[in-house]
Amino acid sequence: MKRVVCPGSFDPITFGHLDIIERASKMFDEVVIAVLVNKTKRTLFTVAERIEMIREVTTEFPNVKVDSWSGLLVDYCVENQIDFIVKGLRAVTDFDYELQMSQINLQLKGIETLFMSTAPAHSFLSSSIVKEIASYNGDVSNYVPAQLLERLTSRLAQVNGGQN
Ligand code: PNS
After folding, report:
1. Of 17, 87, 122, 131, which is the active-site residue?
2. Cβ pair 4, 31 in contact under 8 A
3. What is the pLDDT of residue 164?
């Protein structure tokens, strides 16, 4: 069985992530979306909330499952017998960091990283930009699944003290 992990913060999951997940689900027997800790980011949602949201918007993909991990991605791969990581590349600005990560992950445990080019419609999209727009009451319905919009706006209102 060919399995791949799609790792990230997913704070929250966007149509950009979903595009990569859907395309990977056609290439692999199983895609595991792994919610991991990125030490450089403070998140809006807890890991449990992010998992719940991802599950809600991936029900249509029978070979996609969701998990979380608080250690190194390569250790998750080894523990779960997963040989491949899939990542979306939006632009050259992603490349340096992603290349470094892929080389580290290859050297640490021999895990291969496959890069998929993001669909042009999503090339500018990130969870951070979605949160920025939504925090100013901008419309993010083209970027985030409809089921998550209410949760996103109410959490932002909560953390901004009702001022957003
Ligand atoms: O969505 P993000 O925040 O860009 O995803 C980055 C993530 C979470 C995939 C990356 O930070 C990660 O792999 N974190 C787990 C720890 C790890 O394995 N780091 C890479 C080797 S130092």
Report:
1. 17
2. yes
3. 45
